[in-house]
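Slide 14.
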Amino acid sequence: MTAVSSSILWYTTRASGIVSLLLLTAVMVGGIMTATRVGGGTVPRFAVAEVHRRISLIAMIFIILHIATTIVDSYVNVGIVSALIPFTSQYKPIKVALGTVAFDLMLAITVTSLIKQRISHSLWRTIHWASYLAFPIAVIHEILIGTDFRFAWMILLTAGCVSAVGLALAWRFWAHPRPGGALTAVPSRTAPPKRSKAIVTRAPAAGPSRRRGSSKPKGTS
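Slide 15: predicted structure.
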């Protein structure tokens, strides 16, 4: 019974790790699309942002599942402390620490996103930049400790994830996409209201103006 349970946990850990990598890739690409204001035509920008947020939450669920099954599985000696604090694991400390760092970064990003309205935008943006570190660290963790990386399909899957994020980053930094307006709506192109013309009235002249060379009125010397 213990062997069966350990086998189920092992397969669950492997599967949740692979799904987490795919979801983390989708989070990275979606985050870049949101940051560069993609959408506004067929797909509204608020829909792109909402999909990105939901995928981020789902990714955290699978990451937590991946960590939980690793902790419960008695085959490896990884405790709760090791899952939160890097370099405290007795089992492959450096390789496990990479996963811990990636998880801590993703946890900080998720928490600050949930309380975004209560913190400054500059702080939220600074912490969000940590996602550019979390993804490569997670990939390195998967390559070094993952048992499936010896298979060709896993190598191709990892290469595809890295390529997708790399292309998204190249598009952001080298193509320089420009925001087309507000984040959640297409900018209005309605014509501006016409200005009303002011009516200018002239005051009546005080008396008849005299021209040079005009004749003197009668009765004058």
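Speaker note: The first helix runs from residue 2 to 35.
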